[in-house]
Amino acid sequence: MISLKVGSLTGLSSKLGLKRSTPAPAEAEPVAAAVPGKVKAPKRPTRRRAPKPGSSFRPKLVLASASPRRLQLLEQAGLTPDALRPSSVDESVSKGEVPRQIVRRLAKAKAEAALKLVKNEPELAKCFLIAADTVVAVGRRVLGKAELENEAADMLRLLRGRAHRVYTAVTMVTPEGRWRERVVETRVRFRNITDQEIGAYLASGEWRGKAGGYAIQGIAGAFVIKLVGSYTNVVGLPLTETVSMLAGEGYPVALLWLAKAEVDAA
């Protein structure tokens, strides 16, 4: 038996004339020759485009109202409806109904009527649908929309120098058929407007079709000395609650704001 000590293999190899094989150096990768006069331009970052109404980028949004004020408020919040589907419902008040019950019932009725319309339109069948109703109340007395000048005059004389409440119910139907609802209350106080001011306001025609016979976003804003709650609720659509309901059900509100900001900055 042959015993080998540490290092004996090296000595033995040298005596026998054996050489240790060394690994071949790695070949360097060929470097592409630079072409004189040509510089590679850096890639430009792509900008996300804002979704257009009716595009497949987001779910469709339908406003069940013919009110220009509600449309303007939604657009103010960066949300442009894909369609308007106003519906005609009986807005008469039942005996014993309180303001909250009235607006809830009417907003739901408007949503149901609009939903029947969009179900016959394939492009709108899976949409977010918004309906709303607003009333003004002095105690338990409910003031609906003024259609005649004498109605508006009686309402303004009742409201002057005292506080009243404005109620709006917002009903939302999701593409999956879920129903959501919010009722918002705002307290408003008028100063003691004169008969001459009432007459001049009636001549403006601004009161026509407005709950309580006035439009706070117009001349009647000069009548208000105190407001507690949502201003947009008095106009006709409480934006905070409406936007929160949409975002809570997956409508891409913040993404639309971001896209709009990118377009504005372009």
CATH topology: Maf protein
Summarize the main sheet: 7 strands, mixed
Helix content estimate:
25-40%
Whole-number tally of structural domains: 1
The SSE string, one letter per element, is HEHEHEEHEEHEHHH
Task: Describe the fold and architecture.
- With 266 residues, the protein is of the alpha/beta class.
- The chain has a single domain (60-265), classed as Maf protein, CATH 3.90.950.10.
- Helix content is 32%, strand content 18%.
- The chain has eight helices and seven strands, in the order H-E-H-E-H-E-E-H-E-E-H-E-H-H-H.
- Strands 1, 2, 3, 4, 5, 6 and 7 form a seven-stranded mixed sheet that branches.
- Helix 4 (149-159) crosses helix 5.
- The longest helix has 20 residues, at 99-118.
